Amino acid sequence: MPQNPIQCNQTGCILYNSYGVWDDRKSCHVATTVYPTTEEELRLAVANANKNKLKVKVVSKFSHTIPKLACPTARNENSVLISTERYNSSIVVDVANLAVTVDAGVGLRPLIDRVEEEGLSLVAATYWEGVSIGGVVSTGAHGSSWWGKGGSIHDHVIGVRLIVPGNASEGFARVLDLKGDDPLLNAAGVSLGVLGVISKVTLSLERGFKRSITLNFTNDNGIEDEFMEHAKKYEFGDIQWYPRHMQRCIEKAAEATKNINAKRIMATSSIAYRKLIANGLKNSEVFTGYPVIGHQGKMQTSGQPEDSVVVDFNYYRADEASTPRLNEDVWEEVEQMAFFKYSGKPHWAKNRKLDFVGVQDKYPNFSKFVGAKNVVDPDNMFSSKWSDEVLLGQAGKVKEDGCALEGQCICSEDRHCSPGNGYFCRRGLVYKEARVCRYGSGSGSGSESRFESESESESG
Ligand SMILES: Cc1cc2nc3c(=O)[nH]c(=O)nc-3n(C[C@H](O)[C@H](O)[C@H](O)COP(=O)(O)OP(=O)(O)OC[C@H]3O[C@@H](n4cnc5c(N)ncnc54)[C@H](O)[C@@H]3O)c2cc1C
């Protein structure tokens, strides 16, 4: 079992995420943690925090989020963490109305199992079942589907009970029962924990159904032209692209020796293995051939019957923030192209800080969301350094030495990369506006980019 993400002693608590390291590698200190088991205890926790002017954040038993969303404050004083670890007992299925109402701390797997017992199916789910309903709804987490209501869990939310600060006559905390066309219901989905505490979530369901899965391993010729058709044609379509695949120990050696071939060989052997085991799919006891057909509850999200590790490789992160990654400029350029040239939207629970630059302009109702936050939480009890940076458009503007190596900023000077290791701030090769840390000699990153001028004026 992984260690509990909250570790407390006499002086206070430290909140970790499930990776053990936050995106900025700094610890999250909190004065105290409470573990409510009922909605009334949740309400009292908010009331107590409000009365005592404490900063508050909710965190689940799992704390899976990479950015520091769940950390109340940079310091531990005047803060409290509300854990939903023990608020996970109620799952009420309304068969007639095809709906289920759950406590926010309930994990995805117990929820799916309960719903399937009633002959119903939850349509959207993350690929990983070790998450809480409160957490996935708060961060816009998703599976994969363009069909019906969509592939994000919040697409299927039809009700939320939200606990927000109140005045003294209201007992310092209020429970809002959001449903129907209440505009706050819309805001409560993907609310990043800044509106208040989600107590209960009601999700719409479908009659139980099965999925038929076939994995097709091909080369990547024309992948950019095919994925739209793929998504339209298959209800739960998926594409996994392996330009290269890495195993960590060998990876470190490859970084140190700048050995690109070692990385390619690792990629090839990994894909061959995945083909052989059909990426873990089984017809009954073992994999005997495609298609693999099963109930939605068994196919929609992964869980292992024994201790196992599922690795969805994104990129290698060095032990030290100051250690550059071989060819990191390639991914940095792709990243900046995706987010700034093509205006991609970041995943609230996963992306690096630079990806949130300008995020306010990507959602037409962003200012309405901030407005709703200001109404229900006028004293910013549920806001934090991270949420202020992102919601107020300050993300990535403070630049420290080496900050671009881990995506805390976009480089505009060599010192934001690692000149000592031979990584300098350079313009993109294809997307010229990008600024990336590239291995090479000499200095001088070239002329200004939108990021450069913007950041330098802000950071001084
Ligand atoms: C192995 C792994 C696989 C993943 N797979 C996917 C995937 O397939 N698709 C995808 O989209 N994402 C995926 N994620 C990301 C994951 O869905 C998000 O990190 C999600 O937020 C995790 O939920 P959690 O219960 O751990 O939330 P936490 O990390 O505990 O909390 C997330 C945020 O929600 C807030 N919050 C939590 N509960 C409440 C509440 N009751 N009220 C108010 N705010 C609350 C917290 O304050 C925090 O801001 C994956 C993550 C991991 C580690």
Give an overview of the whole structure.
The relative contact order is 0.11. The chain is α+β, with helices and mostly antiparallel strands. Helix 6 runs antiparallel to helix 7 (260-276). The protein folds into 4 domains: 6-83, Uridine Diphospho-n-acetylenolpyruvylglucosamine Reductase, domain 2 (2-Layer Sandwich), CATH 3.30.43; 91-207, 2-Layer Sandwich (Uridine Diphospho-n-acetylenolpyruvylglucosamine Reductase, domain 3), CATH 3.30.465.10; 215-290, no CATH class; 328-358 and 395-459, no CATH class. The strands form 6 sheets. It has a 5-stranded antiparallel beta sheet. Strands 1-2-3 form a 3-stranded antiparallel beta sheet, with no helix packed on it. The protein has 12 helices and 17 strands. The two termini are 46 Å apart. Mean pLDDT is 85; it is low at 245-251, 304-312 and 445-460. It is 26% helix and 17% strand. The longest helix has 17 residues, at 260-276. The structure holds flavin-adenine dinucleotide (FAD). Flavin-adenine dinucleotide (FAD) binds at residues 18, 57-60, 62-65, 69-70, 84, 104, 126-128, 131-132, 134-136, 138-139, 141-142, 192-193, 197-198, 349-350. Residues 439-460 are annotated as: Disordered. One of its GO terms (cellular component) is membrane. It comes from Sesamum angolense.
